[in-house]
Design a protein that fits this description.
The protein has nine helices and five strands; from the N terminus they run H-H-H-H-H-H-E-H-E-H-E-H-E-E. The protein has 281 residues and is of the alpha/beta class. Helix 7 links the parallel strand 1 and strand 2.
Amino acid sequence: MPNEDMRKMGYQVIDILIEHFETLPNKPVSHLVDRVELKKKMDESLPESGSSVSDVLQELQQNVFGTLIHQDHPPNFSFVPSPNNFVSVMADTLATGFNVFASTWMESPGATEIELTVISWLRQMCGLPSTTGGLFVSGGSMANLTALAVARYAKLGDKVGNSVIYCSDQTHVSLERALKLLGFALDQIRKLPSDSNFRLDCSKLKLEVDLDRAAGRNPFCVIANVGTTNTGAVDPLMELAVFCRKENLWLHADGSYGAAAILCDQERPRLEGLGHVDSLL
């Protein structure tokens, strides 16, 4: 693509983004779109030739960007995805433009060192031990899957057998899906009723662990919530950490929704014990 064409396209995209950020507060949070009408506009036969960049950008503005629920809209409190900002958009553009591949030091030492440094910062913020390691993944679902895979290897040698995992009825559905992908059957997952504050009840947890051990099963992992998506509830992390250490259980904390509260002086006491978990996202 010629330099001038690249610049022209880049300026068009930047103009669209700046207009979006400038006008967003005055736009509706969402748009009701008739599926039949949208299908008429967008469902077409495989084209024999390409379209101009301007035509493609115009269609994107009308039929894609113009039909979004704006997750970055100030009054939007729906769903879980985080809002964006112009700085993060530009950073993502650079990372994509340079095709940064940060999985190994050999291929991208600078990006790898950034990852290691930021992981160290997060470790310090959360009060985790100096031996803590970590990595960036695509999102919360992949983070849960990765953490539970580590737990399976560390505690079970990847042999799921008759092992049992414990969580509350407020635990995010991604955890159950992750466990299925890792080879655990539904009857190996104990989904315990939460208490009146929507938190994991430690007394019920202890009872279930005792019952499973008496039946010859192998309790191995407890999943704690650090801010549920339904109510924002935080499970009793310190109590769970003490119990899991005593019972030789892996404690995984799903902090995708609430662990960032560790940065807030007012909310930090609710996360007491976060530094004692075995894995955290």
